[in-house]
Amino acid sequence: MLLKLAWRNIWKNRKRTLITAASIVFAVLLATVMSSVTEGVLYKLQDNVVSFYSGAIQVHKNGYWDDQSLDNSMLINDTLINQLNDHESIHGVIKRLESFALSASEEHTRGCMVVGIEPEAEPIVTKLDNKVSEGEYLTADDKQVLVAEGLAEYLGLGVGDTLVIIGQGYHGINAADKYPIKGLLHFASPDLNKRMVYLPIKLAQQLYGAPDRVTALVLAIDDVNEADKLETELSKIISDKYEIMGWKELMPELNQMLQNERGENVVFLMVLYILIAFGIFGTVLMMTLERQYEFGVLVAIGMRRFKLSIQIILENIFISLLGAAIGTLISIPVVVYFHLYPIEVGGSLQKIYEEWGFEPIYYFSVEPFIFYKQTLIVLIIALVISVYPLLKILELDPVTAMRT
Amino acid sequence: MKDDNHKNCVIHTEELSKIYDEGAVPVKAVNNVHLHIEKGEFTALVGPSGSGKTTLLNLLGGLDTPTSGKVWIHGKDLSTLSKNKLIDFRLHNIGFVFQAYNLIPVLTARENIEFVMLLQKESKKERKDRIEQLLKETGLEDQGDKKPSELSGGQQQRVAVARALASKPQFVLADEPTANLDSKTAGNLLDMMAKLNKDEGMTFIFSTHDQRVIDRARRVITLVDGAISNDEVRDTNKVTT
């Protein structure tokens, strides 16, 4: 009966109910679209940055991250590789041997990051083969290197020229050799563009006097958002001789930036929710004042205040859910459309995005939580606002109420 | 009045007073009223406007709390009941009929009658049987599915009476029940209530200015400035029927 009464009551003043519901519809629509684009853009950004270099998860010898020296490199055994490959979320384990060195041409020198990679496997995470701007990508048996465009330009080298690498190898041995440049790489990130050198891992092990050793295993996974969960799972099964690090630890600045972006979005959404709250509160306020007489009669004939409060809460919930449901229903095709056909950024903004290595595209996320979160929040707002009529009803004196 | 006597009557009050102290001068709306209402009475509270009729009804119905004095309903001292207990007590013991009908506008006549029985948690069968019986008794057999806005004033007041009786109360308090009705409709309503009083022994207490109600009452209590100035029990044969 309370449900029936509440449902019919909200239609007693049809115009007011529709106006309130409409305000909720627009706010939910706006909030959903905003959340979708924010999450979509941030997810893509996170995915892009993670796949630039680090990957979502890395496994090192314990202590390597704090002291990134070849002396902290590791020999890989089959047990570890099998444990990683057996996990359903991991679809690739990529070996790297990396160390800083001095790169040189005839006239210039510059510090660089020399990375030994498995040429066939590396593109799974970093799509390195797509970044070749001139020349060719590596094969496993090559005795050549790939050099980032910025570094090659500084050194005055091109494809076919020779790059000299001088550094310190495993256990302090001298590491020096010269390699023909097979290709140049273009990275969107200026930082990577001026310091990266890639060569096959066997060649790198030879250069650094570290046969069969690697500094990192990079894990290829489908969804970067699963990294935290996977990291926890792996920590339980992998020996504590190894450290397992997710991208949030590998790139704390990126994580902080994403959190800040989400925080800004929350502020915007808060403003929207406050608008929704005022819309609902206006209705509740009018309804509470208008219906004092009715409340008085109901209490007089024997309806407990608690039941009456439940009825009023139900009315608020009905109006809010109605608005939230319609808003969500309208937002679904909008968000799905932009998910399928993302908005491409043009002009100078496109250049800025590309310079920073981000795709100049506004992606829209269709994660279910984006939709049900709005409904849930509107519902909570309705419940919080219901406190007002509830207090009015709890202090209601039927005689006074029936005099109004 | 001794306690034993409270238990045998429907309503009993002792030194009942209600003083409003909101203005510069306190107003005694009900002043030291001693009242004793027996089962089956058909009583009218009369008096000029502001004489305290409605306030007295509110006190008798437990809607208002007295400044001093006490009200016993079937021997139960209302002042001993908590707010919620008092609401439950009203639900099970007192039927209310208001001047402005006060039906729930979004419910049909049948649902309005059913409402109090739902609050009482009566079974579905009990509710159904009682609704049909009350609709028949109030002459509304064909109007059960109409909403209040689709009924005339007289019909709405009949639904209000049916709602008041639905909870099988000890007595019905009616505050100016005919004030908004035309002469014929008021007459019909009073006939119906008189019949319920006669056939089922239902106790009715009205506050009224309406001479038609006063003419039919078997007891007329006159209030002046909140105090009982006259309490007339009439010869049943002289009452207009």
Automatic annotation (TrEMBL), chain A:
Record's keyword terms, sorted: Cell membrane, Membrane, Transmembrane, Transmembrane helix
Organism: Mangrovivirga halotolerans
Domain MacB-like periplasmic core: start-end pairs: 17-236
Keyword check for Membrane: yes
Location(s) in or outside the cell: Cell membrane
Signal peptide start-end: none
Name of the featured protein: FtsX-like permease family protein
Family label: Belongs to the ABC-4 integral membrane protein family. LolC/E subfamily.
Residues passing through the membrane, by range: 266-289, 310-340, 370-391
Automatic annotation (TrEMBL), chain B:
Comp. bias intervals (Basic and acidic residues): 136-149
Alphabetical UniProt keywords: ATP-binding, Nucleotide-binding, Transport
Residue stretches making up the ABC transporter domain: 11-241
PROSITE patterns for the chain: ABC_TRANSPORTER_1, ABC_TRANSPORTER_2
Region (Disordered) residue spans: 136-155
Pfam families: ABC_tran
UniProt signal peptide: none
Keyword Metal-binding: no
Molecular-function GO terms, alphabetical: ATP binding
Superkingdom of the organism of origin: Bacteria
UniProt-recorded name of the protein: ABC transporter ATP-binding protein
Organism, as annotated: Mangrovivirga halotolerans
Source taxonomy: Bacteria, Pseudomonadati, Bacteroidota, Cytophagia, Cytophagales
